[in-house]
Amino acid sequence: MARLSIAGMEKVNVAIKNSGRNKTDVYWTKKALVSPETWNRFRNGKGNIGNNIFIACCKVLDLDPNEVKEQTVEEINLGEGINFSFLGRATAIEMLNALAKTNKIVVIHAVGGQGKTTVAQEYLQELESNGYQVIELYVPIDVTNIPSAKSVLDEWFNRDFYEMSSAEFGVTLGRLRRILKERKLAILVDNIESLLDKNGKFIPEHVQYLELFSALSDHSTQSITIVTSRCRLLESRLRSVYNYAIPSLSQTDWQDYFTYSNVLFDEKSLAEMHSELGGNAKAMTSVCGEIYMDFDRNATNFWEQRGADILASADLKDLVAGHLERLEKLEPFAYGLLKRMGCYRYQSIPRIPIEALFYQLWDSPKESHIKTIEVLKNRSLVDVVNSEYSLHPLVRAEAVHLLKQTEEEFAKAHSSAADFWKAKVQSLDTDKDLLMAFEPCYHYLETNDLNKIIEIFLNPDLLKDEHLHMAFYGRLSPTLVLELLDKLEERSLILPPEQGMPVLAHVKSFRGSLYLFSGEPQKSVIEFDAAIKIIEQINSPQLMFFLLSNVFQAFACKLDLGEFDEAIVLTKPYLDNIDRYKYIEHPLIQQLLYVYTTIAQSFMLAMQLEHNASAALTEQIYEAIKNSSLSISDIAICHTCLCLGAVCLMNKRFDKALEIYNTALQFSHTTSHRQLEGKAMYGLAEIYRNIGDLPKAKEFCLQAKDILTKIESKLDLAKVLVEEALIAREMQENGYDDNFEIAIALLTELNAPKQVERVRKLMS
């Protein structure tokens, strides 16, 4: 059996990159005569594979197997059957296998550094080979950075289940329960103690995690959840939970590890070290790394010189702190790098590439950067997987503590980290790119550079003619952005008004557009209204573009809510004084003025029964869209077409409305935004009903209903239910009254009285 070493994985990655082929290209599996699963295990270094298969995989990359494989126990004459990457934990795996047969959640608990996460990951890897889908959640030690249970579920649905989550936590949780019954999932929740109080219960501010764990602990699920914690989980409301205290490594395990690491020792010193450090796994690797680097591999000398310090405290945190103190004296650049690595979050992006470390080495010679990083690797102070780096939570906690001691270095580290992420992301092709694009915001939040966060949102380089949060539509749940905006608002409110109010205006604007495109126009109107008042109060020329954008987006919300008169009252003062805004310096201002004002004017003319004049204006904008003369995004075009189609319906220009709604449907597919797709289909259903093609109307109506039900867009769903009832009534089908009643219930819940009034008129 063989597997890649860490250096071997780097060589494999380089060889694949130089070949010009993708790492998952079927070319490799065909040439090596292996399955895709085996190829992935080989290139990721996950577990041992047969020697012949290992050699075949190396051969297709023109690599020498002996140069890239991990050194085996046999090769250093230590006997057979010992896996030093997973030393002394075979019994723990057997125990987990036994416990998982009768428990849905197993909590591995022990003091820090005992190897809880290592055991959990090894066990999940075993489950993965048996057909389980593995999902991992790493809970930050800092309670202020813990993501909400809602955002965790949203990420699982987007990243792991490829399904849309709901805007409501309870609905998403219900969908998770279904998935847990249908699929074999192996879930790791690491470091849960941050979520627990001293009695082992979930802290009140994160009580939604109790609901999540309740779903995971249900006996009817096919899932297995492994939790790591420094304390037991003692929630009486959870079923099928077992708290397993993982034992320490034995003295024999320590002896094997020191031998494998080529460290010299005498049995007496080793026995004392093992006893005083409680057989702790992290202590073993940490001490071994220090002995190897600083004491010429002699454990006896180390114990004579350092034993008294370690005897003062057997707590691993103190051991890490002591290790770092010595690192500071011997390798100051490596010490500085370790501190600064603490500024990275390791959450949305759990591991960082080596370039992120280079950005933190601003005060050391470039030629020494690799050597500095190797120092941390050799001392077991950084974790490396597939050439990407992370910190053990305990090491990171100490790094963060040390970094905060120097205000200037703290600010510089976060600023450099933000610079790295900005340089790293050149496009938004993948969801990971999108998550990385938002990482600078968290660094600027730490240093209170709120205006720089606003600049990230407004960055025109990554998203054509849109702001960054717009990229979440149809790809990821907006929960992550909403939580970031909440933190940004909190910080803006404690600033002096002249600094905080412009930031707050942007926050309200961004949040309003997120709600608008998430199917929550009531919340949108509240946010837009607040932003408009702030901008008018501070009278900032730089914010006038947002003032107009907010006015016309609020106008669109009011149309959705059926508040036509209120929409006119909101918009008319700005239309009457539109010339004062034409000289605003903003790249999108002319497009905004042309599109939004024309739509608003055409709507007002339709309300006044000036149908010909209204139709002429809608035709004018639509021609600009067809000729590609509008420099706006696909989402904006789709939204514009939906508004134009609605006005055409008011003017009874059904042929033109049909053409426009079909264009909207076309653009909704390019954006992958399901709500816009559902709206376009609903519009088509309404047109076909008006022109008498009831079968086609019903077809589009049912498609829209299916989409909008899945994404929980309640207002749009209510409109579709009404349309479905109208179609059924004209087709003389029974039971359509139920749809009217359900729609009224939804609209009442959403506080949309004008729409309720409209439905009651249609019923009579």
What portion of residues is helical?
Answer: 55-70%
Mean pLDDT: 87
SS-based structural class?
Answer: mainly alpha
Calculate Rg over CA atoms. Answer: 30 Å
Secondary structure layout:
Elements: H1 6-19, H2 26-32, H3 36-44, H4 51-60, H5 65-68, H6 90-100, E1 105-109, H7 116-129, E2 133-138, H8 149-161, H9 169-182, E3 185-190, H10 208-216, E4 224-229, E5 241-245, H11 251-260, H12 267-276, H13 281-294, H14 299-311, H15 316-330, H16 332-341, E6 352-353, H17 354-358, H18 369-378, E7 383-385, E8 388-390, H19 393-403, H20 407-424, H21 431-446, H22 450-458, H23 479-493, H24 497-516, H25 521-538, H26 544-560, H27 564-576, H28 589-607, H29 611-626, H30 634-650, H31 654-671, H32 674-690, H33 694-710, H34 714-730, H35 737-749, H36 753-763
Parallel strand pairs: 1-4, 1-5, 2-3, 3-4
Antiparallel strand pairs: 6-8, 7-8
Helix pairs in contact: 2-4, 8-9, 9-10, 12-14, 13-15, 15-16, 16-18, 16-19, 20-21, 21-22, 23-24, 24-25, 24-26, 25-26, 26-27, 26-28, 27-28, 28-29, 28-30, 29-30, 30-31, 30-32, 31-32, 32-33, 32-34, 33-34, 34-35, 35-36
Task: Describe this structure as you would to a colleague.
With 764 residues, the chain is mainly α. Strand 3 (185-190), helix 10 and strand 4 (224-229) form a beta-alpha-beta unit. It is elongated, with a radius of gyration of 30 Å. The model is unreliable at 72-82 and 311-315 (pLDDT under 50).
